[in-house]
Design a protein that fits this description.
The complex is a heterodimer. Chain A is of the alpha/beta class. Chain A has helices at 20-23, 60-72, 94-100, 103-106, 118-135, 147-164, 182-189, 207-213, 236-245, 278-281, 343-379, 409-418, 446-464, 468-473, 485-490, 499-505, and strands spanning 139-141, 172-176, 193-197, 218-224, 249-253, 273-275, 296-298, 310-314, 317-321, 384-385, 395-398, 425-426, 436-438. Chain A has 2 domains: 95-352, Type I PLP-dependent aspartate aminotransferase-like (Major domain) (Aspartate Aminotransferase, domain 2, 3-Layer(aba) Sandwich), CATH 3.40.640.10; 360-490, Alpha-Beta Complex (Aspartate Aminotransferase, domain 1). In chain A, helix 9 links the parallel strand 4 (218-224) and strand 5. In chain A, helix 3 runs antiparallel to helix 11 (343-379) and helix 5 (118-135) packs parallel to helix 11 (343-379). Chain B has helices at 26-32, 79-82, 86-89, 114-122; strands spanning 2-6, 11-16, 19-24, 35-39, 46-47, 52-58, 62-66, 71-76, 98-102. The chains are: A alpha/beta, B alpha+beta. The A-B interface holds A 181, 410, 426-428, 430, 485-486, 489-490 and B 34, 36-37, 59-62, 84-85.
Amino acid sequence: MADTLTVSGNRALMIEEPLIFELGHPGRVGVDLPAPAPVDFDRLGGCRRSEPAALPDLAEPQAVRHYTRLSQKNYGIDTGFYPLGSCTMKHNPRLAEKMARLPGFADVHPFQPVGTIQGALEVIDSLAGWLKALTGMPAVAMTPAAGAHGEWCGLMAIRACLEARGQGHRRRVLVPESAHGTNPASAAMCGFSVDSIPAKDDGRVDLAALTAKLGDDVACLMLTNPNTCGLFESEIIAIAGAVHGAGAFFYCDGANFNAIVGRVRIADLGIDAMHINLHKTFSTPHGGGGPGAGPTVLSAELAPFAPLPFVVHGTDGFRLIEHAHDAPGHQPFGRIKGYHGQFGVFVRALAYIMSMGADGLRQASSDAVLNANYLLARLNDALSPSFAGPCMHECLFDDRFLKDTGVTTLDFAKALIDEGYHPMTMYFPLVVHGALLMEPTETESRETLDAFVAVVRALAAKAKAGQAEEFKQAPRFTPRRRLDETLAARTPILRWRPPADRQAAE
Amino acid sequence: MSEIRFTKDHEWIHVDGGIGTVGITDYAQSQLGDVVFVELPEAGRNVTQGGEAAVVESVKAASEVYSPVAGTVVESNGALADKPGLINEEPEAGAWMFKLRLADPGQLASLMDRAAYETYLSTL
C-alpha cells in the first residue's frame, strides 16, 4: 500500500478496500422501515442484548461494492489452476449446481413429514447405493459433515463394535508418519492413544515395523491409500492381513479415493471402514466454497453401529430411521449431526456421479493420475522428486533442488503467486524436507499443465542462478506484499474496535 | 555434577542434582522456523523416555517434543506462553521447556554428548 503511486492508493482494478466497519456511517440506511413498536416485555428469556449490536450502517450500493471487491481479491478454482496437493481442488460442474438449486431440493425442510420428501430421501438412498457399489462395501453412514468427521464416525463405530465384543481395552491406534493430521486428531477425540508407524525409503508403510507394533491393545490401523506422498500402498493386502490377524480393524482415510475410484473396490483390499470426501472425489464445492460431506462406508461387522439417522426402504416408500428402537438389529453409537447430513452436497455429488456414469468416473480417476504423472515427468529434472515414480493423483517434490540457493519452499510458493498461480501444498507431508505437493486433477488440460510447468521450470532456474533476492521480495504484485505470518500467529487481532475504543485501550 | 545430553529428535537435557531441564536444540528451531505456540506439560505429569511431552507449533507445522528420559515433570517454563519466539532466540538457554525429576538416571547413557550430537548433525 505504501509503495503505490496513485493518489487514491488504488491500482486500477486492485482497489484498496477498508473493513466494512470502517465504511459504516451512523444513520445511513438502504431501506426505510417503520420504527418498531416499543417492546415492554422480554421475549428472549433474559437473553435480550443490553447494548446495540454495533453493526455498520451502509447504503445498499456500498454493501454490494464492498463484497464484490472482496470477491475479486479471491483466487479460486474458477479463477485459475489450483494445484494444491492433498486438497483436490477440481472444477465444480455447473450441472450439479443447477440440480442443487431446483426448488424441490433447495426448498425442502428437514422437519417436513417424510411423505412429502420422498424424492429427497431417494437422493440420499441413491447416492448411498453408488458409494456402496463403488467401494464394494455393504453399508454407508451418510451424515458425517466432512472428511475428519467421517474419520471420527468410523472410529466411533470401531470403538462401539470393540466394546460390544468385550474388547474395550483395545485403545491404541496405529497411524503412519505421512498421515493427514486429522487422523491422530480423530483417534484422540475418540479416546484412543496414537502410535506412529515409520515409512520405508520408497515412501510406503514399513510392513515389518507395522507388524512389530501390532498387539492385543490395538483398535485399528488408519492408513491413507494412495498415501499423502501420492503413492499406492502396494503391500496393502498383506497390511490388511496382518491387522486382521492381530484382531484389529483396518480404517482407510479415503481422502485420495479420487485416484482409484472405478478401478479399485476398497472392500477387496480388506478395509473395514473408509470415509469419502464428496467435495474431493465427487466434485462438490470445497472449503470456503461450501460445506463438505464425509460419508463413511462400513463393513458388515461395523454396519450395525452406524449413527442415526438413516434412510431405509419401507413398505410404503422411503423411511427415515431416527431412533434406535426403530432399528432392530442395530446398535447405533449415537447421532453425530443435526438432521440428515449435508443434503445440498448429496444432490451435487449424485448429479456428478450420474452425469459421469461408471465409465466416466473411471476415466476421471485415470486422467487425474495421468495428469499428475505428466507433471512429475516434466518437472523431474528441474525439481527434486522425493520418490521414484510413477505416482498416483499427486506428485511430491522436496527442497533439495533449492539447496544452497538461499530460496526456501515458502519463497518459491510466494513467487508462484506473482506468476498468477495458487501455490502447491507446502511443507506437507512432513516425511520429506520442505515438501512441494502438486495435484493437478483430471479437469486441467495439457495446455494448462504446460503453462504451469514452464513457469515452475523458469522459477527453479532463477533460484539456481542465484536470484534469491527476487524470491525474498515476492509476492510483489498482490494487494499486500509478504505478510508477517509470525506476528499474525503470535498476536492475532481477532476483533475490530472503533478507533475511540482502541485509543482508550492504549 | 551437571551435564548436557542430546537426542536424535533434537531435544537437549541438562541434568543437575536429579532434576533434568529439557528444551529443543538450535538446529531444531532453525528447522521449525518461527515458533508461534507452545504446549507444555503440567507439573506432576509422568513422561516416558521418547514419549510425547510437549508440542511446538511454528508457521510451518506442529511438532511433538519427546522427553529424552522418563520422569515426573516438576515445572514448565511459563515465559514461553507469552513469548514463544524465545525458542527461536535462545533455544538452549532461556527457552527451556520443562524440568523433570529423573526416574532412571541410567537412561542418560543412551543419549549423545555435544560432540556426538554435532557429528550426528553433520550427517543430516
